[in-house]
Design brief:
The complex is a heterodimer of chains A (79) and B (307).
Chain A: E1 12-16, H1 18-22, H2 24-33, E2 39-41, E3 47-49, H3 62-66, E4 72-76
Antiparallel strand pairs in A: 1-4, 2-3
Chain B: E1 10-14, H1 19-30, E2 36-41, E3 49-50, E4 53-56, H2 59-66, E5 72-75, H3 79-91, E6 96-99, H4 106-118, E7 122-124, E8 130-133, E9 137-139, H5 146-152, E10 155-162, H6 165-177, E11 182-187, H7 198-207, E12 213-218, H8 224-235, E13 241-245, H9 261-264, H10 272-281, E14 285-287, H11 293-301
Parallel strand pairs in B: 1-2, 1-5, 2-4, 5-6, 6-7, 10-11, 10-12, 12-13, 13-14
Antiparallel strand pairs in B: 3-4, 8-9, 8-11
Helix pairs in contact in B: 3-4, 8-10
The chains are: A alpha+beta (79), B alpha/beta (307).
């Protein structure tokens, strides 16, 4: 029996709509605006979330502002 | 007048038996009119005293002993315990919390700031040296020992805000030497997430009759300067602002960073020169070097200040 996978982050998670993640231009913009490199472009230009950087989030919400309303969500993993 | 604190402000020191806290308690008691440090908190140390300040196990005991609401707390406890200390202070009605501790997990800071907002309380810091009203009171280690703080700070019309604790004193000392006193100086903290930004403190300075100009010390990284530029543009602020931006060399040395966490994490999109341009577009005068600051302030104040 394998152990449960550890959480990918303790502070925040980021959820991005598939449509946005597949849009190379939006992916490029999100990669550009995030000051702590939570986003990266995959080889095919689509958006990749860098799990190990999630807890570096500074809650600037630049990603939320850079994408169409409601398509990028910063999810707080604390109460 | 002043912002945040005045001679009537009462506060406690959480973690008061630690070495740094013992020193800053002495400094606060000795400075100006003598801070009203009404208690200290270190779990398990109730019954002791630090420079005559009674020590309690909990904030609740300190409040009960004081017999009235306590205005503020200086938090100096280790990073792992800071969140609990701050939440305890907030639960007991403390409305101004100066967090000296650095290296607090970002998640904890976010929680503390959100809880403070819910309680209509204010956090200064983390990773800051506190607040000083020249010749009146200081809350935190800002300015160091009372005799040194008395040399560096003098009463006057300039509000000072700085991301660096040490530079708060450096800039204030430069102003003092030029005959420009300070209304209140605030070390806002060098971390990536802090309780009170320039923009969040500006309305307090706007409402303070004594304040006639603002000087800020900034560094590369972070959004605070962009927010301030927008505030100045949109609010029709009455206060002229002079800024000093450290770290211009970082534009020429990618990968180089200051020690403050706030500058380390956000070096990508907002360089020093971009920030300077943004501040200047908003009408904020940016000094090339610290020595220029007093003249720029005097220039902006015009005849308001006798030199």
């Amino acid at each position: 029996m394998s152990a449960a996978a550890p959480p990918k982050a303790l502070f925040i998670d980021v959820d991005v709509d598939d449509q946005v993640a597949r849009d190379a231009e939006l992916a490029r913009r999100l990669t550009e605006v995030c000051p702590v490199d939570i986003f990266a472009a995959a080889d095919d230009g689509t958006l990749k979330i860098v799990d190990e950087n999630l807890d570096e989030c500074v809650l600037c919400y630049l990603c939320v502002e850079a994408a169409p309303e409601g398509t990028v969500r910063v999810i707080k993993l604390y109460e | 007048m002043s912002i945040l604190i005045d001679e009537t402000t009462t506060f406690i020191v959480q973690g008061i038996t630690g070495r740094e806290a013992v020193n800053l308690t002495r400094e606060c008691l000795d400075y100006g009119k003598g801070a009203k440090v009404v208690g200290g908190v270190t779990p398990g140390r109730k019954g002791r005293d630090v420079h005559g300040v009674p020590v309690f196990d909990t904030v609740e005991q300190a409040v009960e002993h004081h017999g009235a609401r306590i205005n503020g707390s200086v938090v100096t406890v280790p990073p792992a315990f800071t969140k609990d200390a701050v939440l305890e202070a907030l639960e007991h009605g403390i409305e101004l919390i100066v967090i000296v501790t650095e290296r607090i997990p970002r998640r904890d800071v976010a929680q503390m700031v959100e809880r403070a907002n819910e309680k209509n309380a204010r956090i200064i810091g983390p990773n800051c040296l506190g607040v000083i009203v020249p010749d009146v009171i200081k809350m935190g280690g800002i300015g160091g020992p009372a005799k040194d703080a008395a040399k560096a700070y003098s009463p006057g019309p300039v509000g000072v805000m700085s991301r660096s604790g040490g530079m708060t004193t450096e800039i204030s000392s430069t102003l003092t030497a030029a005959g420009l006193g300070q209304s209140t100086a605030v070390s806002i903290g060098g971390d990536a997430i802090i309780g009170s930004t320039y923009t969040e403190l500006m309305p307090l300075f706007e409402a303070d009759d004594e304040t006639e100009a603002i000087v800020i010390y900034t560094e590369p990284g972070g959004r605070m300067e962009a927010e301030l530029a927008r505030y100045v543009t949109e609010s029709n602020s009455r206060l002229p602002i002079v800024a000093f931006m450290a770290g211009r060399f970082m534009d020429e040395m990618p990968g180089m960073s200051f020690g403050h966490a706030g500058t380390i994490v956000e070096g990508k999109a907002d360089t020093a020169s971009e920030k300077i341009a943004r501040l200047q577009e908003a009408g904020i005068k940016v000094a090339e070097e610290i020595a220029e600051i007093p003249d720029l302030v005097k220039e902006r104040l015009g005849s308001k200040v006798a030199t």
